[in-house]
Design a protein that fits this description.
The protein has about 210 residues and is mainly alpha-helical. Helix content is about 80%, strand content about 0%. Helix 6 (about 125-135) packs antiparallel against helix 7 (about 135-170). The longest helix has about 30 residues, at about 135-170. The chain is elongated, with a radius of gyration of 19 Å. The two termini are about 10 Å apart.
């Protein structure tokens, strides 16, 4: 069993491994970005970077826009290929991370985290569809389990990064670091998924005989 049109000489099982690694990494990065605000809140409050009321509004707006984005991006993701949706979501979320240290006050901060929530919502639907279209049933179930695990592990890395920022006394550096990770991760996912994506329908049993 060989891979799809993108990597014709790669065995299917190895291709599945790359699909799992790329998708899990992308979703892990997504949840790192989504949880960066909550991880940094204690330091932002203690150092007077943002007021408690503003931080509460930012967090609420992020969750609200994430929920709305799930509906909108779910529809868009049915037509737009995963190789575009996921990199755009990661890169724009990374842009939010890089902009927040400069525009962290008032309505600007609220708007940025609302945008982050929306961009973060653009990954789940396309990733699950990509897995379903490019793997078999058993492998797909395993990879979807890994995606859900990434949603748990990602925030852990975020809190470690925020703790490092707190210990070093530079609250803004973790935002820049994570922003660069998200942008580079989006670029890497675009090239990987473009190679791994099946451009033609998988062969049926009758065709394999």
């Amino acid at each position: 069993d060989r891979a799809g049109d993108g990597l014709p000489f790669m065995p299917a099982h190895r291709r599945y491994i790359f699909i799992g690694i790329s998708g899990t990494s992308a979703y892990l990065f997504c949840y790192m970005g989504k949880n960066m605000l909550s991880a940094a809140m204690p330091q932002l409050t203690e150092e007077g970077i943002c007021g408690a009321a503003d931080l509460g509004s930012m967090g609420s707006t992020l969750l609200f826009c994430y929920g709305i984005g799930q509906l909108i991006c779910g529809v868009i993701g049915n037509t737009v290929p995963c190789r575009y949706m996921v990199p755009i979501g990661l890169a724009l979320s990374g842009g939010v991370m890089c902009l927040f240290p400069t525009f962290h006050g008032g309505w600007a901060g609220i708007a940025l985290w609302g945008a982050c929530g929306f961009f973060s919502s653009s990954l789940w639907g396309p990733l699950t569809r990509f897995v379903g279209e490019n793997t078999d049933r058993r492998t797909g179930q395993l990879l979807l389990t890994l995606l859900n695990a990434a949603a748990v592990i990602g925030p852990m890395f975020t809190y470690i990064l925020a703790l490092w920022g707190s210990r070093s006394g530079v609250w803004y550096v973790p935002f820049y670091v994570l922003g660069c990770v998200l942008i580079l991760g989006g670029i890497a996912y675009f090239f990987l998924s473009s190679m791994l994506e099946r451009r033609s329908p998988p062969p049926t049993r009758a065709q394999n005989r």
